[in-house]
Amino acid sequence: MLKPEEQQVFAGLVARIEIDDPGFAQRAARPPLWWAVVGVLLWTIAPICIVFGGWTGLIEGILAGGYGAHLMRRRQRWTLMISGNRQD
Predict the structure, then answer these.
(1) Distance CA 50, CA 46 (A)
(2) Which of 28-32, 49-53, 78-82, 83-87 has the lowest mean pLDDT?
(3) CB 70 within 8 A of CB 42
């Protein structure tokens, strides 16, 4: 948590950035789309690796599914943080 004076300075910086570069402010407000795309692709590839890869495919499938879940969770946390509903 920031002190009230620091919060005021921070709010001023954010306001200046939004005025100077509205494109940056818009990009910063939403998580990167590629996180969702890669997450879904990894979840799609995981069962294929398991079926056709034997025990090595099982390991690859678990890793791919886990990293896909990590990316989607990261995207969700980003959205919560930006909206102000942050849950740690």
Answers:
(1) 6
(2) 83-87
(3) no
- Could you identify the residue written with the tokens 């909206």? 83
- pLDDT category at 38 given cuts 50, 70, 90 is confident
What single string gives the DSSP state of each residue in the chain? ---HHHHHHHHHHHHHHHHH-HHHHHHHTS--HHHHHHHHHHHHHHHHHHHHHHHHHHHHHHHHHHHHHHHHHHHHHHHHHHHT----
Q: How far apart are CA 58 and CA 50, in angstroms?
A: 4
Q: What letter represents residue 50's amino acid?
A: I
Say if CB 43 and CB 68 are below 8 A apart: yes
pLDDT band at 14 (very low <50, low <70, confident <90, very high): confident
Q: Say which residues have a Cβ less than 8 Å from residue 67's Cβ, sequence separation at least 6.
A: 39, 42
